[in-house]
Amino acid sequence: MLLKRFSHVYIEEGAESFPLTKRILERLSNATRVSITNYKDVFARSGQNFQLQKQSPKLILACKKDNHIYKGSMASQDFGYRNFYYNSLLLNCVYNCDYCYLQGMYPSGNMVVFVNEEDFYRATRIAIRDRLFPEEPLYLCISYDTDLLAYESVVPYTSRFIEFTRANKDLVIEIRTKSANWRALETIEPSDRCILAWTLSPPEVASQYEKLTPSPSLRIQAIKQCLDRGWPVRLCFDPVLKIQNWEGVYRAFFDDVFKHLPAERIRDVSLGVFRMNADYFKRMKKQRTDSDILYYPFEKSQSFVSYPTEERIEIVETLKAKLMDYLPAENIETWT
Amino acid sequence: MKIFVVALRQEARPLIDALGLKKDPRSRKLPVYCRDDKLLVISGVGKVRGGIATAHAIHTAGTPESCNVINVGICGAGNARYRLGEAVIANKIRDQSNGREFYPDMLLNHGLREVSLGTFDRPVTSAKGLSCDVVDMEASGVFQAAQLFVASHEMVFLKVVSDHLQVLPAAYPQMLRYYEDSVSTWLPMLLNQPDLVPADYSITAKQEKLLQEFVEKMRLTATQTVQLRNAVLRFLLTGGETLDFLQSRFQEPSEHKAVRNKQFRAIIETLDS
Fold first, then answer.
1. Which domain holds residue B247?
2. DSSP A142
């Protein structure tokens, strides 16, 4: 009864002529096309239901007029890079994780692709030139508010940004993903300045809270393929959720991960407990009562919602100690 | 509740007959017909009337949270590729007087051709310079009024092509016949479309009553009430089945606030364990 995913493509005035638009429309040749004046008329209109739209999301092709690059957020890990930036090439994600802050951040479950890629490259070049700490590279996360690799077959931003990074020696990028789409990178020469960062959760978490994502075992297989080809890989055990028997579940999962992946070839690991901007959390809770993780007695501190401090410390210290069976402490970035 | 908004009595008639609707005698200025979970309002021509009638119909239905607004009527097509009598669904509505655009959510399969619809203040008699596929005189008003009460996936704009913008008064009967003849091709589809509801877990009425009694008996603060609801939802979502223990354990709450708070914490711990 529901229309299939991306049954409609909304095309903003001015976005039609970009090569990326043409490519996407070729890929989605059966989709109904609707011309629009401004992408916000569709994406930001009132009265949308995020979760229902997620069942039949639409694609919006638009031009981003400004803010092609942002300074890194306090809620994100910078891995020691002081010139820390991120960008938003896509708004929203093909997956639908229960704990995802995008549900509170965006009014719509539809996905926006910004097709004016040259503007993003230009802004990145300027940021590299003007970076505050010129002795360090610019560290750019290109897949924060989305999962670029998961949608690479339609929007090839991952491969294009990798090539862009290769041509700009003072740039390091992080591509965060839950995808198992390693084939999208099969023909691309690895670069030590392009970090593939996989978010991994135990099967108990993934099956219940990470809707539409590939299973952890498929993700691990994809990581293995990329490690074998020489890509720098980061593992993100983030967000850790305090589920029943969390300690046992995560310990067993770490053992399983490092049974399949050579720990010495993992560049670094990030470990963090669930945390979210309080406003986003409030909006999410208003919209849905179908996920128990939203009803945990979280603590609000400095506009963020998370587990109470002592629980956060306990989770991170316990799991970090376990990870240290496999990796040196300096390769484990934690967030409490 | 499915709410049909139509401009003309002639557009309403086939729907009233097919659905067996009865006139609501309480609504005098705006004719309203209803039966069970269906309601129809005849707005009159124009977007302002369309908006007023929509708001009136939703108010009459009384349950905006479970309403679907369906604007049905005839339209003109600027291009002959839309055949006379063809039913189409609008995925975009443009108010031609101010350029504002509106987008109903297209989530359900409907099997009809989709169009962009322009709402004009006057009848359109020429396709020259027309930037939309079909034209009407109500949709933008209906949308704006409905938007105040229902979500964008709870609106449908179905139009039947009655002319190619060359309208002569003598052609009106034929235009309406195109509409009447088409009703059987799209009405079943509209009636069979499921109500889309988010996959929310609802506390049952019985559980809600129990919670309310507990809140009153324990004289909980607003914050404690929120904490209790969160704990109850979490308990139910993780497989908890019954809240009966709330009733059995706290028949006689203490007169002392400190003791009640202790009891409250104990119940939260029980729910969380």
1. 205-272
2. S
* One domain, residues B185 and B233: no
Q: Is residue B197 part of a domain?
A: no
- Enumerate the β-bridge partners of residue A66: none
Q: Which residue(s) pair with B70 in the sheet? A: B4, B156
Contact B3, B32 (CB under 8 A): no
Q: Please tell me which of the candidates B152, B200, B234 has its beta carbon nearest to residue A48.
A: B152
Question: From the candidates A12, A32, A52, which should be mutated to test the interface with B, based on the most B CB atoms within 10 A?
Answer: A52
pLDDT tens by residue, A188-198: 999 999 999 99
A-proximal residues of B, 26-55, CB under 8 Å? none
* Residue pLDDT, tens place only, A278-316: 999 999 988 888 888 888 889 998 899 999 999 999 999
Q: Which residue of B has its CA nearest to A31?
A: B114
A144 min Cα distance to partner chain B (Å): 26
What ipTM was predicted for this assembly?
0.88
Which CATH number is A8-335's, of 3.40.920.10, 3.80.30.30, 3.40.50.10540, 3.90.230.10?
3.80.30.30
pLDDT digits (tens, 9 = 90+) for A15-49: 999 999 999 999 999 999 999 999 999 999 999 99
Q: Assign A74 a pLDDT band (cuts: 50, 70, 90).
A: low
Closest in B99, B103, B151 to A49, CB measured? B151
How many domains, chain B? 2
Spell out which residues of chain A touch residue B233, defining contact as CB-CB under 8 Å. Answer: 289, 292, 295
Helices A117-129 and A157-166, packing angle to 10 deg: 30
